[in-house]
Amino acid sequence: MSDYKINTKCIQSGYTPKNGEPRVIPIVQSTTFKYETSEAMGRLFDLEDTGYFYTRLQNPTNDYVAAKIADLEGGVGAMLTSSGQAASFFSVFNIASAGDHIISSSEIYGGTFNLFNVTMRKLGIDFTFISPDASDEEINAAFKENTKAVFGETISNPSLTVLDIERFANAAHAHGVPLIVDNTFATPINCRPIEFGADIVIHSTTKYMDGHATSVGGVIVDSGNFDWTQNDKFPGLTTPDDSYHGIIYTEKFGKAAYITKACTQLMRDLGSIPSPHNAFLLNLGLETLFLRMPRHCENAMKVATYLENNDKIAWVNYPDLESNRFNALQKKYLPNGSCGVVSFGVKGGMEAAMKFMNSLKLAAVVTHVADCRTCVLHPASATHRQLTPEQLKEAGIGEDLIRFSVGIEDVEDIIADIEQALNA
Ligand SMILES: *Cc1c(COP(=O)(O)O)cnc(C)c1O
Asked: Are residues 265 and 308 in the same domain?
């Protein structure tokens, strides 16, 4: 970790050019890397030497950007993935296989819920979903002999609940397993879950980190803090890997065991790498993340306050509002503001919600969120369409819920747009 303040890290971390090298992270658009001898290449394949040989495993552009994000989150290492979905999958699959069990918050992104509840169940991995409001007793009761991790979102998309990271980390650690936190909505500018006990942090970089809606991507950050050898729950990390002539990740890579396995084993076999060009674009977003996040939060707070005082609005959900049930957790974990996303219901339910959304002019109806441009979505009919009414309820998503992602435009224009749509 560098000693710089987070704002400086956004700009400087991850890449330091040497004499005569490009000032900006270069795009190394090459699948392969040349070596003088076959023996030198062989040592790379055996993980005996470190170096680039094939972009599916590692690429310099991707690594510079991953190193910056590791520094922002305070981890020992990170790996970029081609999407947030790939990051979610890898983060769990790296330590769980058929016959294992994971505890997840029920209030998570719809795509993650489908991945866990349908696709990963087909791989033989079992999930228990618990409310982020669960008591310590309820959390403890969810653990089984074969539980391998606990998963949650710092701020859930789209229900905007705030995870009590310390409480969930303590429960996970008491049972000898790591806490994995999806920090997409908060970003490391507003919250660094590792400081509160999270062991693995993931992101859909598609959202605020990219910030300009140019590139789908994800990242996994390893805190290096979890001791994988404390029990026999993680044989993939603590016993020989036959696909590398029997190396043992915890012995050979120490604190970076988890992230090294994710890269050299899962990425090698499953191949969900981002293109170096997308990593370059992601870096441009990261360079201004610390400027954009405060503006997103400031604008969202003004929009939320406007909505709270408008009698056409049935309810407003924004953790930073004093009236919000997660306000105490927001103050603890996200003291500088949570994110730019506000959810609310207009009086008149689903039909009124549709009419309101169709009347917006500045705010665009898109399947996207956390972008510099204001955008809006009706999750029950879009991202969360596959969920049953019961599952929607568990995920905290009402039929009237409008997810309003406040951008960094002039907030007076955003509020004027809401006002004209409410009057329409
Ligand atoms: C969008 C999102 C994902 C999935 O990321 P993609 O980049 O779309 O694959 C995962 N978690 C959260 C919280 C998200 O908002």
From this structure: no
Give the predicted TM-score (pTM) of the model: 0.96
Is 190 found in the same domain as 313?
A: no
Least Cα distance to 306 among 160, 159, 417, 190 occurs for 417
What separation in Å is there between the alpha carbon of 357 and the centre of ligand 1?
22
How many whole angstroms from 137 Cα to the centroid of ligand 1? 30
Query: For residue 231, what are the domain limits?
Result: 11-285
Q: How many CB atoms lie within 10 A of CB 41?
A: 16
Tokens of 383: 């991202």
The per-residue pLDDT for range 137-151, each reduced to its tens digit, is 999 999 999 999 999
Q: Which two tokens stand for residue 393?
A: 């309820």
Contact 292, 337 (CB under 8 A): no
Residues 48 and 190 in one domain: yes
In a domain, 189, yes or no: yes
Given ligand 1 and candidates 80, 81, 83, 85, which is best to mutate, with the most ligand atoms within 8 Å of its CB?
85
Does 2 reside within a domain? no
Ligand 1: residue of 104, 156, 157, 203 to mutate (most ligand atoms within 8 A of CB) is 157
Do 303 and 272 reside in the same domain of the chain? no
List, for residues 329-341, the tens digit of each pLDDT value. Answer: 999 999 999 999 9
Q: Which atom in ligand 1 lies closest to the alpha carbon of residue 205?
A: 7
